[in-house]
Amino acid sequence: MIFISKEGILTREYNSDTKKFDDTLVESIAVCLNQEVSLSKDLTFMDLFSILEKEKSLINVLFMSQLGGFDFNLYLDDIKKPISKKEKIEEDENNEIHYLELRWVAESTTYENDSEENDINIYPDFHGWGRWIDESSGEPIDGGVAIEFTPLRLLKDFKIKLNNKFEIYNTIFFEKPDKDGKELETEIILESYRSFSVYDLISTILFEISFLGPPEDRDEAFEELLESSEKYKNEFGDLYDHDEVKKSIKNKIFGTDMEAKDE
Questions:
Q1: What is the mean pLDDT of residues 99-103?
Q2: What secondary structure letter does DSSP report for 186?
Q3: 153 to each of 6, 46, 260, how far by Cα in Å?
Q4: For residues 21 and 187, is the Cβ–Cβ distance under 8 A?
Q5: SS3 helix, strand, coil % of the chain, rounded to 5?
Q6: Long-range pairs for 72-75 at CB < 8 Å and ≥24 separation?
Q7: Is this structure's pTM higher than 0.85?
Q8: Structural domain boundaries of the chain?
Q9: What is the pLDDT of residue 234?
Q10: Neighbouring residues of 79: CB distance < 8 A, sequence distance ≥ 6
Q11: 45 pLDDT exceeds 60?
């Protein structure tokens, strides 16, 4: 078992004589990538980056694909940037993230007419978790929060948690709509638990933060969203609520605009 704390990456073994765990720092993440991992309760996003920074050259080699070929140093620079007073105010107003979470996504698909083969997708996902107001009902919802637009410096103080709950959701596509007009239905076909490896943890986080490219490209993508908002405002006039869209986009960059998935 690998245990990651503020001290670093450690091997953790139970000592039957002392009835306690013995922790030993590992020399390199390269020797423990396939081992099961657990995290200390106080481990923050910044703590993990500080640990990975010690082997940043190795990170660039081992996780080049997950980083999209971009240099890990770009993301280290991003998370170290100071938070401006304006960003702090906007973050306090908009941010409903409670913590950052790694969880399993397991989805299978079944076709009644057998025209296509059934398939299943299983992969780890990294996102924020928090409470936000559902636009349709106006009610508070606990759910997943998108972070791909969020500057890393705004995430650095959040704790990271591992959600080992493992559920397979099966979506059945009907050959024809049922009497209520439904064309599909989704059900849970398996409920269990599944551990994460060190590789699962690091690769999933790096894939998520580089999803829109390096930080500069991510910020440009956000600006393009704002420009699109202005464009549609000009095109649709009063039919288009620019202020609400701008607020929604702004919320997204601070991590509060994503469809919740009940867990």
A1: 97
A2: E
A3: 18, 9, 24
A4: no
A5: 35, 30, 35
A6: 72/206, 74/214, 74/215, 74/216, 75/49, 75/152, 75/206, 75/209, 75/210, 75/214, 75/215
A7: no
A8: 2-100+143-160+195-253
A9: 63
A10: 45, 46, 49, 152, 153, 155, 156
A11: yes
